[in-house]
Each structure stands twice: as structure tokens, then as C-alpha cells.
Design goal:
about 325 residues; 12 strands; alpha/beta; Rossmann fold
């Protein structure tokens, strides 16, 4: 099966060679964008960045012709967010596009003048203080959210129960410093209680704490795991999935990136789709719209991915009913 990276790279090579310039663009005008990428590899063909570039291209923006883009990559290092945002401000970009919640907060704290399009925005942008409301953001920040609370935790637990009916407890691996972490914890507690399971809060602030946390819960009968899609854990997906495998914990992950390095299951919004949709916000802003008046959009495209190799290593038999619902099955 063609994977997302191959598909999007193909779009870049195939479609960027035939530029399309929108009639609405000002003749000779070159817009400047600043893009702050929090975790993904430093490459314009990285799937999420590639999806954003493809979205811009479909709207008539061509890098090197009517568009100049300044990319900044933080590699998951939170201490770099303010510095990189400040660099983009000094470059006087017309619009700043920022992935995830914490980097978007850093960008907002750096400038109140430059429009900011947040991608993912750490879940609920109202809860973490990015905007005043979803319908009318009210400041210089708008964009697309990555809402994974409420019903999502119910889906996580349901999938774990379908794949491993014997589970009796769920460990929730998270970084409590995440702005929306406390709210998501309450939703996780409600979801596990609804299924008659116990929730174990596994709070980590450093990667070297993960091994001990997973070792402790793995000693308890019927243990399983939900791994939050947070920057601390996303910076080290290989190590996190390896530790889950070592302690033989069936796990479902909150970000697609874990599936490329051996994660068992992922369910959630398509981050690449959110980046692609962010291009429409850039287009509207460059045509005169104000971020304060552009409603925050929520995810519309979701993915279920199953890794059969990992399932076999854990001795799990994935039910056919789950496989039929999967958007991708990794053999």
C-alpha cells in the first residue's frame, strides 16, 4: 500500500512542475510566509509540510514566483519556540503558520500584529488561551484545531477493549506541562469509568522516566496504554514504542507518527489534512480577511491505523471487525 509520505512527495514532484497562478493575486506581488514546525523532520517534503505546500499550490501560490516561505524547525525543543517565532517576526512575514499549541502560544506572545494560523493548536484553543471563542477568535490567531478529547478517549478505550478484551486498567502516558493536559485527563477518566476500567495517570516530564512508568504498570494484570500526542513523546517516537513493546503493553497512540516506528494502533485526526486546510486560511488572510473573524475549524478527516507486525509480536489477534474499519493496515 502506498504510504502517505510517498503519495505527498509524488504530488510535489508531479504537480509543482506545472505552476498555477491565481487570477486574484496581485501582479508581481510576492507574499512572505513564516512556517514554524515543532517536531517533524527538517524537510520541505515531510508529509505535513508537503500537504501544506500542496494546499497552497492548489490555491495558486508558487514558491519562487508569488510566494516566499521561511521555514523554522524546532525539533520538539520547546525552548526554541520563542526564538524561532521572533526570527520570523524580524523577517516581517505577512502570515505566520505554526504547528501545535505551545509553539502557537509562543508565537502569539511574540507578536500581536502578524496574523497567525495555528495547525492542531494543542487540542482546544480556547482552553489553552489562544482564542476567545471558536466562532470568533478575537485576536491575531485562527486556524484548525486537533481536538482529541471527549469521544476520542471513548474510542481509544473501545479499540483497546476490542483488540484486548482482557484489559482491566489503562495507563495514560502524558506530560502534565501540556496546556490542555489536565482537561484531557478528566476526559480520559470519564471514558475509562464508562467501560468499567481503572485509569492510571502516568505523568512524565523527561523521557528517561517513561521506562520506569511502563515497567510499573506492566506488572499489573490486564494493563494497556494510551500515549498522548504530546511534544515530549513525539520527539522520541522510537523510544516510546520500543518501551511499550519491551513491557508488552498493548497501546493506542494519539499521533500518527508513532505508527511509522512500531506503534500498535493510532486513531485520530489526519494531521496532514489539517496542514493542507491551513493553506485556505493563509489564502483568506492574504486576500484581506482578519484572523479575528475567521472561525476555528475542527477536524473532519480521521484515520485508524493498525500495525499487524506489532500485534503479532504481542501475541494479539486483531478482530476482523477492527481491520475492516482501518484506513491503513501495516503488515
Amino acid at each position: 500500500m502506498m504510504n502517505r509520505r510517498t503519495l505527498l512527495c509524488g504530488f510535489i514532484l508531479g504537480t509543482f512542475s506545472a505552476p498555477l497562478v491565481a487570477e486574484s493575486q496581485q501582479p508581481g506581488k510576492v507574499w512572505r510566509l513564516g512556517v514554524l514546525v515543532p517536531v517533524e523532520p527538517e524537510s520541505p517534503t515531510e508529509p505535513n509540510v508537503a500537504a501544506f505546500r500542496q494546499g497552497l499550490h492548489e490555491l495558486g501560490y508558487v514558491e519562487g514566483q508569488n510566494l516566499a516561505v521561511e521555514y523554522r524547525y524546532a525539533h520538539g525543543k520547546a525552548e526554541l519556540y520563542p526564538q524561532l517565532a521572533a526570527e520570523l517576526v524580524r523577517l516581517k512575514v505577512d502570515v505566520m503558520v505554526v504547528g501545535s499549541g505551545a509553539p502557537t502560544l509562543a508565537a502569539k506572545n511574540t507578536t500581536h500584529a502578524i496574523p497567525i494560523v495555528g495547525v492542531g493548536m494543542g487540542g482546544d484553543p480556547v482552553v489553552i488561551g489562544l482564542v476567545t471563542s471558536l466562532a470568533r477568535p478575537g485576536g491575531n490567531v485562527t486556524g484548525v484545531s486537533y481536538v482529541t478529547g471527549g469521544g476520542f478517549f471513548g474510542k481509544y478505550v473501545q479499540l483497546l477493549k476490542e483488540v484486548v478484551p482482557r484489559i482491566s486498567r489503562v495507563g495514560y502516558l502524558r506530560d502534565p506541562r501540556n496546556p490542555s493536559s489536565a482537561v484531557l485527563l478528566k476526559e480520559a477518566q470519564a471514558a475509562t469509568q464508562a467501560f468499567g476500567l481503572k485509569l492510571q495517570d502516568l505523568r512524565v516530564r523527561e523521557l528517561d522516566e517513561v521506562d520506569g512508568m511502563l515497567a510499573t504498570i506492566s506488572k499489573q494484570r490486564g494493563a494497556s496504554l494510551i500515549v498522548a500526542g504530546e511534544l515530549l513523546l513525539m520527539r522520541h517516537p522510537n523510544q516510546v514504542t520500543e518501551l511499550a513493546a519491551r513491557h508488552r503493553l498493548p497501546a493506542i497512540y494519539g499521533m500518527r507518527v508513532f505508527m511509522d516506528v512500531g506503534g500498535l494502533m493510532f486513531y485520530g485526526p489526519s494531521l496532514a489534512d489539517l496542514w493542507r486546510r491551513a493553506a485556505t486560511y493563509v489564502d483568506k488572510i492574504l486576500k484581506g480577511a482578519k484572523p479575528a473573524d475567521l472561525p476555528i475549524e475542527q477536524p473532519t478527516k480521521f484515520e485508524l491505523v493498525i500495525n499487524m507486525k506489532t500485534a503479532k509480536a504481542l501475541g494479539l489477534s486483531i478482530p476482523q471487525s477492527v481491520l475492516l474499519r482501518a484506513d491503513q493496515v501495516i503488515e
